[in-house]
Amino acid sequence: MNHHEYIDSLVEVIRKVENQIDVDVIADTIEDSSIVITAGNGGSAATAMHLASDLVKGCSINTICLTDNTSLFTSYANDVSYEHAMAEMYNNIATGIYGTYPVVMFSGSGNSPNLIELAYAVEKRGDPIIAITGYENSRLHNIVSNYKYGISVHLNTNDMQIAEDIGMILTHIIYKTLKSSHS
């Protein structure tokens, strides 16, 4: 695929997503929270970290990215399991503290076991979930789209780089929406 074809593919998926996403609902969910929690793996972890940085620095919204603290994350992965590390971290953050903790998840495949376990933990507590997933057969999309407090943005593409690029674009759209409401 040359760069023109890549850009055409990117724009095609963006146009599909544009019609399914309600950025104002996502922004309201984030704005009405006590603390926003973000999560992802690999390139999606970097996107989750980027959103957390934007929310704290640009919007003064308390945000924690579960993959920011590698020593804590790897201790949970080692002592509990990689699959349950994020869910355990979330449970410890959210336990005993009043308020809502929306969790924003990024997953190119939508099939990462640790994010799926995190979604179940969030659902059990009753906090909102915002999931941005890529692949057609995304388990995370299926879980979140059937959850009462779930918002799923499903890209429906099997191209990891397209999914990761659009995830980053969506973080900037969310950020700009929130930033304009704080101005």
Write a structural description.
The chain is of the alpha/beta class and 183 residues long. The protein has helices at residues 3-18, 23-31, 43-59, 70-79, 82-94, 113-125, 139-145, 160-182, and strands at residues 36-40, 63-65, 103-107, 129-133, 150-154. Strand 1, helix 3 (43-59) and strand 2 (63-65) form a beta-alpha-beta unit. The longest helix has 23 residues, at 160-182. It is globular, with a radius of gyration of 16 Å. The mean pLDDT is 93.
How would you summarize the topology of this molecule?
Elements: H1 3-18, H2 23-31, E1 36-40, H3 43-59, E2 63-65, H4 70-79, H5 82-94, E3 103-107, H6 113-125, E4 129-133, H7 139-145, E5 150-154, H8 160-182
Parallel strand pairs: 1-2, 1-3, 3-4, 4-5
Helix pairs in contact: 2-8, 3-8, 4-5, 5-6, 6-7
Which short descriptors sum up this protein?
183 residues; alpha/beta; Rossmann fold; five-stranded parallel beta sheet; 8 helices; 13% strand
Whole-number tally of structural domains: 1
> Which bin fits the share of residues in helices?
55-70%
CATH superfamily: Glucose-6-phosphate isomerase like protein, domain 1
How many DSSP helices? 8
Q: Quick recap of the structure?
A:
59% of the residues lie in helices and 13% in strands. The protein is α/β, with parallel strands linked by helices and 183 residues long. The longest helix is centred in the C-terminal third of the chain and has 23 residues, at 160-182.
